[in-house]
Write a structure and sequence with these properties.
Elements lengths: L28 H13 L9 H13 L3 E5 L2 H11 L7 E4 L6 H7 L4 E4 L11 H7 L4 E7 L8 H11 L2 E5 L7 E2 L2 E2 L6 E5 L12 E5 L2 H11 L3 E3 L2 E2 L10 H32 L5 E2 L7 E2 L5 E5 L7 H10 L16 H4 L1 H4 L17 H9 E4 L7 H18 L1
Parallel strand pairs: 2-3, 2-4, 4-5, 5-8
Antiparallel strand pairs: 1-9, 6-7, 6-13, 8-9, 10-11, 12-14, 14-15
This protein binds pyridoxal-5'-phosphate.
The site of pyridoxal-5'-phosphate has 15 residues, from helix 3 and helix 4.
Length: about 400
């Protein structure tokens, strides 16, 4: 039974936190000095300075791959990875429907077809069983997304890929430093893409990275990033300007040194949420599979049917308590207008006419998208703030279940 909603700050009650609690990137003197140094050097482009090369080397060493190609953001990293992997017009690429849109639009940018496969209900990552069902003779690749910081089931995915001769692309945007059976994600598939957007576990404001052990793919990725230029004013393939700047790489070098500490803080905050919220009616807390080191980019909770208000109202009530909460992702991508009508809304390519998605196609994704909300674990937040956020969740639960 619902209790008295008037206790909620949303309806005029006293908020749990007097001041708004705001997640934000960690930026210290070190990052500021690093950018200042680049500015003073006047070498702002990666074509002029050496920060980007250094950032690539250090990042590849940290994750454990031979090659790294830094890009302007995570979206361009994904597109570069797919193009370098040779995905071409009409190819089918299997992707999860619960992810940031760029995972699927990177496939469209190669004029290929995103084929959705449903997710696992506990980890929210692509289900190997569902992937198997979607493979056709046109399938060329699988994109796994290590969503919210939890690694996907890589052994099973790699096995499927081996049997069918498919390429595995890892979208590691939300899982920098996460591990699968002791190996860092981004070093397991054939090629991987990272994002260093301002909210990520380490950040450069905007920024991205492609990693691979495959020399041929690495060389192609380098061409794609820089106009397809093999030598000065000599263009071998279709390329873009997807270069990162030296200011971004300088920040990245500093943040990379702090990453382990950042991830430990995020894990500690996740543990506090867990201790504060375990056993609370109405909440299904995130899991960490035995094979996984979760880096909790977000602490994503599923509301159960015991909660008697829609998820969006729940989050509205929570925010009114002056605590941060997000919804990632409110709609399973196959129901978005773009994917409902790829032919009309994307490029008018004949093979998009046959792509039809409808409600009910991906029951786990559709269910999850309606019930999840995320709490923040950012290292700038204090342990006390994490406890306060947890109290706000308990308060809203107490009047909505
Ligand atoms: C899973 C996922 N893939 C891709 C991206 C794209 O990265 P960016 O925003 O740096 O372009 C993001 C992040 O925003 C993401 O969360």
């Amino acid at each position: 039974m619902m209790n008295d909603l008037s206790r909620l700050a949303f309806y005029g009650g006293k908020p749990v936190s007097e001041q708004p609690i705001r997640p934000r990137p960690v930026i210290d003197e070190e990052e500021i000095k690093a950018v200042e140094e680049v500015l003073r050097s006047r070498k702002l482009s990666s074509l002029a300075g050496d920060k980007t090369k250094k950032f690539e080397e250090e990042f590849a060493k940290y994750i454990g791959t031979k090659f790294a190609i830094a890009t302007s953001n995570g979206t361009t990293a994904l597109h570069t990875a797919l193009a370098a992997a040779g995905i071409k017009a009409g190819d089918e690429v299997i992707v999860p429907p619960i992810t940031f849109v760029a995972t699927a639009t990177s496939v469209l940018h190669q004029d290929a077809v995103p084929v959705f496969a449903d997710i696992d209900k506990d980890t929210f990552t692509i289900s190997p069983e569902e992937v198997k069902k979607k493979i056709t003779e046109k399938t060329k690749a699988i994109i796994v997304v290590h969503l919210f910081g939890h690694p996907a089931e890589m052994d099973e995915i790699m096995e499927i890929a081996r049997e069918r001769n498919l390429i595995v692309v890892e979208d590691c945007a939300q899982a920098i430093g996460a591990e699968y059976k002791g190996r860092k994600v981004g070093s397991i598939g054939h090629i991987s893409a990272f994002s260093f957007y301002a909210t990520k576990n380490m950040m450069t404001g905007e920024g991205g990275m492609v990693l691979t052990n495959d020399e041929r793919m690495a060389n192609k990725a380098m061409l794609i990033r820089h106009h397809g230029q093999a030598s000065t004013y000599h263009y071998e393939i279709l390329g873009y300007n997807y270069r990162i700047t030296e200011m971004q790489s300088a920040i990245g070098l500093v943040q990379l040194k702090k990453l382990e500490n950042f991830n430990n803080m995020r894990r500690k905050h996740a543990k506090i949420y867990y201790d504060e919220l375990k056993g609370v009616k109405g909440l299904e807390l995130p899991v960490e599979k035995p094979y996984a080191k979760h880096v909790f980019h977000l602490y994503t909770i599923k509301l159960t049917e015991e909660v008697e208000v829609p998820r969006d109202d729940f989050v509205k009530y929570l925010r009114a308590e002056n605590v941060p909460a997000g919804v990632f992702y409110p709609t399973s991508l196959h129901l978005e207008p773009l994917f409902q009508n790829l032919y009309e809304r994307g490029k008018k390519l004949d093979f998009y006419k046959n792509v039809k998605y409808k409600a009910g196609d991906f029951p786990v994704s559709e269910d999850v998208s309606g019930r999840v909300f995320s709490l923040y674990t950012d290292p700038v937040l204090t342990d006390d703030e994490i406890v306060t956020i947890s109290s706000a969740v308990k308060k809203v639960i107490s009047v909505t279940t």
